Every structure is written in structure tokens, then in C-alpha cells.
Amino acid sequence: ISTVVKMSHVVKKRKLDKTRQDRLYFDSYSDVTIHEEMIADQVRTNTYRTAILRNTESIRGKVVLDVGAGTGVLSVFCAQAGAKKVYAVEACSIAEQAVRIVRQNNLQDRIEVIRGTVESVDLPEQVEVIVSEWMGYALLHESMLNSVLYARDKWLKPGGLILPSKAELYIAPVSDPVVEDRLHFWYTVKDQYGVDMSCMSDFARSCIMNSDITVNSVSVEDVLSHPARFAELDLYSVTTEELRSVKGQFRCESFGSAAVNALCVYFTVTFNCPDKPHALVLSTSPFKPETHWKQAVLYMDAPVDVVQDTVVTGEVSMYPSEESARHICIHVDYTIGEQKRQSKTFTIPDWSCEAPP
Known about the structure:
- The chain is of the alpha/beta class.
- It has helices spanning 18-27, 32-40, 42-54, 56-59, 73-80, 95-104, 145-155, 177-193, 200-208; strands at 63-67, 85-90, 111-115, 127-132, 156-163, 166-174, 213-216, 228-234, 246-253, 258-271, 280-283, 295-306, 311-320, 328-336, 342-347.
- The protein has 2 domains: 18-163, Vaccinia Virus protein VP39 (Rossmann fold, 3-Layer(aba) Sandwich), CATH 3.40.50.150; 168-347, Hnrnp arginine n-methyltransferase1.
- 25% of the residues lie in helices and 32% in strands.
- The strands form 3 sheets. Strands 6, 7, 8, 10, 11 and 12 form a 6-stranded antiparallel β-sheet that branches. Strands 3-2-1-4-5 form a 5-stranded parallel β-sheet, sandwiched between helices.
- Strand 4, helix 7 and strand 5 (156-163) form a beta-alpha-beta unit.
- Its main location: nucleus.
- It comes from Seriola lalandi dorsalis.
């Protein structure tokens, strides 16, 4: 799940009260565009469908809770896999469309759409399965995972199934050629127009290589090392307290000579599939087919040259923003080769502050 991120201009930071944070978040899912984007993401939707159908034995005749059901597509998949009852809990007005979709597929006797947050609804029974597509940009933006964990602790029977059951975070150094082209542009103006504007390059660098988490597709050829996993979340055991700071260390070795100007963060989620030799993995890696999550790109203040086997090490810490708990911050301490250690904190621009109260 991921909202459209507006990154056009800097806004004044101020703390939003939780009710307004939630309203802005849920309102962002009331428009058709985001649901079209998610359903059209075949990697996302087909992986969930395959995972649910491969778990038919665990779902058939069972009670399922779909947390943040949206259009209800996952609830329909669960009903198709033989679920006895599916509670599709959805807080925003798209729930009205989910009701229509359920009726159109003649599943109203088995799927009940409930409008409300999972923290506020009262289910008539415990469930044996929880399914949810809760992932945001850089995995944790929007922090919907908290709602899944609440549902797990309140409604899931002991020994129940959670789909997906595990999430992992990865990081790799990258070279973004577009940034280098944009920075070099100011050196070309003199030849073009007879006006030397090369002094603009420092200003351009500060604007482009800023502290925003940039959601973008990273090309395979721009990834400069094997990615390193820095965190793993087991959805059966992770706590909301642990989500207040998800951190880990990483070590990467450069493939060859290049200029590192950013770090790329992406995630995978894993679905356990009984009777199958391998679990099913939904990956947002730049080495895999593109998804609507793309990757989270973190620009350094300045590029650093590396050669083959140059070591890039560091620590990543992800935590909720003070301004809005639904927004994620990423703090990275990193060392490239013999360079001194650098630190930088990144945020997804809080465009919601622009909305009228």
C-alpha cells in the first residue's frame, strides 16, 4: 500500500494530531487512482493471489480477517480459496465499492465488509487467518503494520496463519546518472548561451541531493554492489514497540569503478506455502520486475568514487517521524572505503501539512 508522494516543495513542519494524521491517510485511499495502481501492479496482486491459493488447505472452511481490505480483492481470493467467512475491514470510503465488488462476485454470504479501523471494529469471533497488504514505501511508510499486529494480538487464534509472515529490508549503494547529468548541466550553459552559470552547481547539488526519501525506479546497471539485508521482521512475533526503531548494520563491496551518489532501500515479504519446497517472495528489488513501490533512494550530500571491492559499511535506523507517526524517517551512518564516517537523516516530504485543517 502506498500513497502518491508529492515532492514538489518544502513545507513547514508541524506536528499533526493523530486524528488528523489518520484522516489524511484514509482520505488518500478514497480516490480510484491509488486502487487502480495497486490492482494493476501484477507482481503485487498475482503474488498475493498465488500465496492465498497455495494456502487453500489452511484457508478452506476457516474464518479470515483482511486488514485494510481496500477494494476487497484479497478477501475475494480468500473466498475463492474456500474460506468459510471473511471479515474485510476497511476504514476509508472505498469500503462502499468493496461491498459492490463482493456482491458482483456473489460472495456476500461469505464476505462481510466492515467500515472502520481494525482498532475500533468489533468482530463476532476470533479468526484463523489474517491477510493484509500493509507495506508502504521503504516498507514502513504509513505504519499500517501496527494495525496488523493489533489484529494479530486481538483476533488471531493461537497457531493461526498470517499472510505474509515475514518482511526483510535491504540496502545497496547506487549511482544515479540523472543526478550527475543535472549537476553537469550548469557547466554547459556557457557554451549554449555565452553565460557562465557553473556557480549554480553547488546550489543545484543542495537542492537535488537533499534529505528527501525519493521514490524512484533504480536501473539494475546503476546498482554498485550486491544488496545487503539489514533487518528482518517476523510478523508472528514482532511488537509495535520494536517498530519504533527498526535498525541494522550492512556491508557491501563495490562491483567496479563508479561514483556512488545514493543508497537504495527496498523490501521483500515472504508467504509460507505448505507442501511447497520454497516460500513465495514478493520482492521490490531493482533486480526483479518493477512494482508500484519502486525503491526508496537516499541521496548523499556529494558523490564518492569507488573501485572494485571498495567496502561500503554502515547502520540504518528507521523510525516514525515526530511530525506524523505515519511518516517514516531513515537515518544512515555510512563509511565508503577510507572516507570518514558520514551521517544523514531522510524523510518522505510531509505534504499533508499543506492540507487545510
